[in-house]
Amino acid sequence: MSPAGEEDYEAVCALFAEGDAFHAAARPDVIRAPEGPARSRKVIRHLPTSQDDLLLVAQEGSRIVGLIRAGVTGRAHGCAQALRGH
Length: 86
Known about the structure:
With 86 residues, the chain is of the alpha+beta class. It has one domain (2-84): Gcn5-related N-acetyltransferase (GNAT) (Aminopeptidase). The chain has three helices and three strands. Strands 1-2-3 form a three-stranded antiparallel sheet. Strand 2 and strand 3 (63-71) form a beta hairpin. The chain is globular and about 35 Å long.
């Protein structure tokens, strides 16, 4: 795992699109896959420099095969709690 860089944009965007499509198919009543790029270049540039966000990529050789995004939202209830139905 290593921090994502702007040079990883295409691969990271493809992985986000795959995740977005999975979640939208599972919960179309709550989640909608974005039209156009899954994330903007501005967002991908911002995440590695933010104190409140983390974007790491997993590589197999020189190919990006996965990612982890974490962030501090400041909200009392997170996505995981909402999905559990609480």
